[in-house]
Amino acid sequence: MPRRRSTTSTRSTLPSSAHWVPAVSHWYICFHSIFFTVYFATYTSFIYLFVLVLGRRVINFDGN
Known about the structure:
Helix content: over 70%
Mean pLDDT: 74
Number of helices: 1
Low-confidence stretches: none
Order of helices and strands: H
Number of strands: 0
Structural class: mainly alpha
Largest sheet: none
Distance between the termini: 82 Å
Strand content: under 5%
Shape: rod-shaped
């Protein structure tokens, strides 16, 4: 009995999920790519600013 219930539930939910999978995956890939680019840009900018400030402090320390 439980096996029949599980198979029937999966069969009933399978066609709807399979129908919505391509669109969801497409939007997810687009959103993930945009989020990754924004995150990478902010991460690199913060590293650049940190290195720049650290470099200025080191240069000023060496100069003084």
